[in-house]
Amino acid sequence: MVNASVLIGTEPNGAPVSVDIEELLATRLLVQGNSGSGKSHLLRRLLEESATLVQQVVIDPEGDFVTLAEPFGHVVIDGSAYAGDEIARLAARIRKHRASVVLALDGLELEAQMRCAATFLNTLFDAPREEWYPALVVVDEAQMFAPAAAGDVTDEVRRISLSAMTNLMCRGRKRGLAGIIATQRLAKLAKNVAAEASNFLMGRTFLDIDMQRAADLLGMERRQAEQIRDLARGHFLGLGPAISRRPVAVKIGAVKTGAKNVVHGLMPLPTAQGADMESLLLSEPLAAEPLPRVIAEVEMPPVESGELLEQIESFVPAGEEPVEPPVEPSLFAAEEQSAGIDAILAEMAEEADCTFQPVATLFQDFTVRCRMARIAGHGLDITAFRRRFALAVAGVDARDPGWAAIVSAANGLADDLIAPFLVIARAAQTGLPCPDDQELCRIYGTNSLGRIRRLLEHYEKAGLIAMRTDFGGRRSIGIPAIGATTAAVD
User: Could you list the residue ranges forming a coiled coil in this record (predicted)?
Assistant: First the structure.
């Protein structure tokens, strides 16, 4: 039986403090603490420890949690890069495919953040019944999305955002959505949203009104509320069925990831002073430099919505990874091949629209077909399967010596980029015209001609191909590694 408890820290006497994730899914969690009290650290610890147990959806207004992507496989969605209907479609796919995601809203103004989060949460909430899978929905800085009183936003925006948060906390449980909300001040958070949580982790706070509300939620007497003011950074008082039946002091444990571009503590001052510093500031004309943006931009370009949907569809839920022992991807290793596996891959590659299916779906189909063919232990993990399937789509025949040089030239390519290159190289080797863009779209698994053009540019920059267009407008593609060129074609 899988242990559903995760360790978040220790008591002052060293005893471990755990959170029961199954109980948390049914009872929800409220985290409160002033800025600098360690709320984000607590949320990060909880997310990291439970990443392999349950789907996670993070509403991240400051972009702090995007670092979960690399070590834990979360898909990062830049909220500023998509329209409202695209955000809704993304949320629907997330619910369907059980992808763990971080919705980064740091590129948006407050009203736009509230609208985007409301659209996203409402779509998660409105998913069809067969998609009501369990998921932790973490909302950092929840007082922004469920304010207790009208502030700098319009009544309409406040209403739709508050409604979405209320649905999450009040009615989300039956739909598998477990709200985890964090706020700097309880007094700024709508009471009907905070009241639905049954588990509490209260950090340092100084204002009397917030201390009193925290003490009431923890069942403490008024005179005991003073200890909330004395809590150190990273220390919390916990209570609830998923944590402890009595108030317990907990020091949050270490985390593996951290927020980007955050410097804690002091730094050495610059050595330039006086006239030297004045020279640095005033030596160049001010008009020559662009004004800095108030909101820092992520240097990577926004991902197209179609590509992001493919990432979500390809997401393998935590705990459902293939159980076959992983092996190193090998192209023609006889020990991992059989005529039956080759036949199954070739049969799948011939099916219409096979390249448009998520790799997780294809791998599951492949495993079922192997079982039906009584092939025990096919020896492929999902990474090796992805490469073998790409070879099958390209028509690679291990018995044909002509393929060896082509496959060798493609060894440095990512698995999702290899099939179109193999097809082009084979056409060059045999002197045939290069497949047109529509055929390359089918092989690559996309409907976007723009993506195929960018793919060819990527091949060319990597030195894999050399494109040439003659005066008649006919294109030919050379493959330097095999010294061959496709026939020219319009």
Answer: none
Provide the pLDDT for residue 152.
76
In a domain, 281, yes or no: no
C-alpha neighbours within 13 Å on the C-beta side of residue 345:
22
Backbone angles phi, psi at 127, to 5 degrees: -60, 150
Given its phi and psi angles, is residue 31 left (phi above 0), alpha (psi -120 to 50 degrees) or beta? beta
Residues 51 and 191 in one domain: yes
First to last CA, the chain: 62
Spatial separation of the C-alpha atoms in residues 112 and 79, rounded to whole Å = 9
Q: Is residue 162 part of a domain?
A: yes
Residue 336 lies in a domain: yes
Cα gap 230→328, rounded to integer Å: 54
Number of structural domains the chain divides into: 3
Window from 180-189, 207-216, 363-372 with minimum mean pLDDT: 207-216
What DSSP line would sit under 39-75, residue for residue? Answer: HHHHHHHHHHHHTTTSEEEEEETTS-SGGGHHHH-PE
- Residue found under tokens 């706020």: 183
SS3 237: strand
Shared domain for 429 and 373, answered yes or no, is no
Report field, pTM of the whole predicted structure over 0.70: no
- CA–CA distance, 309 with 166 (Å, rounded to integer): 27
What tokens were used for 217?
A: 């939620």
On whether residue 294 sits in a domain, the answer given is no
The CATH number given to whatever domain includes residue 477 is: 1.10.10
Q: How far, in Å, CA of 418 to CA of 411, rounded?
A: 8
Once rounded to an integer, what is the mean pLDDT over residues 424-448?
86
354 and 467 together in one domain: no
